[in-house]
Amino acid sequence: MKSSEVGGGAGTLSIGALAARFGLATHVLRHWEAMGLLHPGRDAGGRRRYGADDLNRVATILVLKEAGLGLNTIGSLSATVDRATRHEILRPAAEELRSRIAAAQASLELIEGGLNCEYEDVTQCPNYRRHLAERIGPRSPADQPPQDASCAGNSSRSS
Predict the structure, then answer these.
(1) Has this prediction a pTM greater than 0.70?
(2) Is 17 part of any domain?
(3) Is the pLDDT of residue 156 over 60?
(4) Which phi and psi (to 5°) does residue 48 adopt?
(5) What DSSP designation does 50 have?
(6) What's the sign of the alpha-carbon dihedral 55, 60, 66, 68?
(7) What confidence tens digit (pLDDT) does each residue in 106-125 have?
(8) How many domains are contained in the chain?
(9) Backbone phi, psi, residue 47, to 5°
């Protein structure tokens, strides 16, 4: 470890060393500090010093961001130890994630349908047509062609 990484206290890191450890820019750590997510110590010269708790905190922030949580939500979570409040904060995030997963799954099914389609013209594939029909929705009576009394499917016809 460089002396600049340890200068302000044994086992602490400078802002540059901490940022490099996680592949972040130093301004990201300053922003997180301004939002109240990080609380680094200071050395005699006023420089930020990060210890083991800060390493854990940065790792936690990164994991929660990868899970799709925003910094404000992460801040709210860090401000509570109450289980009910934690659930109240996380429930909307879980619902949003479920919705995004469902949308991604539907997109994947459409793409895989195109990959597996044996027709030259993908618009002729039954899977593609089903997706279009679902998007269009049920037809209104005004959109339906008039039925001829001689139509085979007409239920008013007597045998």
Answers:
(1) no
(2) yes
(3) no
(4) -65, 140
(5) B
(6) negative
(7) 899 888 988 998 989 988 98
(8) 1
(9) -80, 145
Looking at the domain assignment, is residue 22 inside a domain?
Answer: yes
Is residue 31 within 8 Å of residue 63, measured between CB atoms?
Answer: no
pLDDT, tens digit, 9 for 90 and up, residues 57-76: 999 999 999 999 999 999 99
Structure tokens at 159: 């045998």
Q: How confident is the model at residue 152 (pLDDT cuts 50, 70, 90)?
A: very low
Q: Which domain holds residue 48?
A: 1-68
Asked whether the beta carbons of 76 and 89 are under 8 A apart, the reply is yes
Cβ-count burial 81-113 (b if 16+ within 10 Å, e if not): eeeeeeeebbeebeeeeeeeeeeeeeeeeeeeb
CATH code at position 9 = 1.10.1660.10
Residue 33 lies in a domain: yes
Name which of 98, 105, 110 is nearest 135 in CA terms.
110
30 lies in a domain? Answer: yes
